[in-house]
Structures are given as C-alpha cells and as structure tokens.
Inverse folding.
C-alpha cells in the first residue's frame, strides 16, 4: 500500500468514478473533476488546487473524438490543454491511450506523462472484462446458444487468448485466425482450431459468430460477403476497428462494434485494475 497521496481524477467514464472511490478507500486524498453526472461523486467546481496533486489521472482514452478531454460523465466540454495548463512542471500525469498531441503538450509543459494503458499488466487484465462483455453481447444477440456454435476469433493477442478458453468452457466450437505460426500453435494448445489470415474468404461460410480483435482492416467486402446468412460479427477492436462497416451495411451483415466494454460491463473491476497500475507507476518512479 502506498503512503497517502493527493490524487486528482479528471474526466472519464464509470471506471474513473470507481477508481476515485477505490483510491479514497485506500486512504488517499482524492479530488474529482468533470465527473459530476455520476451519482454519488462530489466534484471540484474548478481546477484550483490541481497543481498540488502528487498524481493527476486522466481517462481511458484520455481524449475524445475531437481531441478534447474525454468526459462522458460531464455536462460540459473540457479542453485537455486547459487541464494541463493548470498544473505545474514536474507533476505526474497518468493517462490512458495517450495520443501524440497529448504527449507533445505534456512535454511542452514539462509534465511527467505515463500512459497506463500501454503497460502490459493492465492490457492483460483489461482483456478479462472485455471478453466477458463480448460473451454477454453474443448470448443476448444470437438466436442460438453458444454451446455447439461455430465461433471464429480473429487475432490471437491478449484478448484472443482471453476469449478462447471462455468460449470453449461454454461449449462453443472455436477456431482462431492468426497471422503468426506461433499464435496458431498457441490456439491449438488451448483446444481451438487454427487458420492463417491470408485466405479467410475461403472458409468463413460456416461460422455463426465472428469476434474480431484486430484494430486494422481484416473483414472487408470480400470477407463479409463470404459469411453465412445470419452470422453475427462482434468487433472488439479499438478505433479504427477491423470491419468495413459500409460494406457490412450494404451486404446486410449484422455487426456490433463493442468499444470500451470494461467501463460498461465491469467498471469497478476495471477501476481496480487502473488503480493497481497507477500504484505500480508511482512505485517505479519512487514518488
């Protein structure tokens, strides 16, 4: 357990609200800002005092679609540069999925920026609520059981490795499409079938469910046209995603792009993962 710190949690979704509560339970002095629409959270009216924080935690992702602070639980729009301008040089800023623009702004202000989402321990743990959320969507949206369903997982990184055993535990017949031979071998070691990604259209016709984890174009017009009628595609990849949504719409393929599932299905657990990761950052920096 860290000694008590002065920590500001600025913006974000229910994960950050849960994070603030968990930090307070650990005995830290916690201030929140731009979370006022979350029930039970008392937010600061301004950024006054943020320059005295030992650590400022920004959301995951830190920036919204237009580059402003990501604040789905605030009734106001907030600029990232406004938050950073209120801080003093040398302060620690922990942000998730920090873009180059944020890195540049932090460097210009001589802030210590750490991207907690880039850390392996969080990426591995974050795959758990994402996988569980994906299973929930599949069970709600499919007209069949996952038991005995033919399921393809595209990509075999952290999330793919979390999905396969959970799908198999429910009785699904699981295949993995992965580029590397070592990933294919790992999938087979878990009891799944394995294929490459170079000839996907040749064997996509038999799957009831396709779960994509690759954040790059992998399911384009040719692949989507090869799917069986009624197949469901769940895209779990972060932006820009892996599915050609225009082609899917034209073909009538049902696609659910399930972004930020940890914050939706398990915000308390996800908040705990972020808290532990931030503790690791502070410990490593010997603050």
């Amino acid at each position: 357990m860290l000694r008590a710190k002065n920590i500001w949690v600025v913006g974000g979704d229910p994960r950050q609200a849960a994070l603030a509560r968990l930090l307070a339970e650990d005995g830290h002095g916690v201030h929140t800002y731009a979370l006022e629409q979350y029930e039970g959270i008392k937010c600061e009216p301004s950024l006054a005092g943020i320059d005295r924080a030992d650590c400022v935690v920004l959301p995951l992702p830190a920036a919204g679609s237009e580059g402003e602070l990501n604040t789905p639980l605030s009734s106001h729009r907030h600029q990232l540069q406004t938050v950073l301008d209120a801080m003093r040089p040398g302060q620690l800023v922990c942000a998730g999925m920090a873009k180059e623009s944020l890195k540049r702004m932090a460097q210009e202000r001589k802030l210590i920026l750490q991207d907690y989402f880039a850390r392996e321990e969080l990426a591995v743990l974050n795959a758990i609520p994402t996988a569980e959320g994906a299973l929930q969507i599949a069970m709600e949206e499919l007209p069949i059981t996952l038991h005995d369903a033919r399921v393809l997982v595209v990509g075999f990184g952290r999330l793919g490795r979390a999905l396969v055993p959970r799908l198999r535990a429910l009785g699904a017949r699981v295949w993995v499409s992965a580029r590397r031979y070592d990933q294919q071998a790992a999938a087979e070691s878990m009891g799944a079938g394995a294929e490459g990604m170079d000839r996907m259209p040749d064997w996509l016709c038999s799957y009831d469910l396709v779960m994509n984890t690759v954040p790059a174009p992998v399911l384009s017009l040719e692949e989507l046209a090869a799917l069986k009628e009624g197949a469901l595609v769940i895209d779990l990849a972060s932006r820009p995603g892996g599915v050609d949504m225009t082609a899917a719409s034209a073909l009538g393929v049902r696609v659910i792009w399930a972004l930020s599932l940890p914050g939706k299905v398990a915000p308390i657990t996800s908040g705990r993962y972020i808290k532990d990761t931030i503790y690791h950052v502070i410990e490593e920096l010997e603050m």
About this structure: The two ends are 13 Å apart (CA to CA). The mean pLDDT is 96. DSSP finds ten helices and eleven strands in the chain.
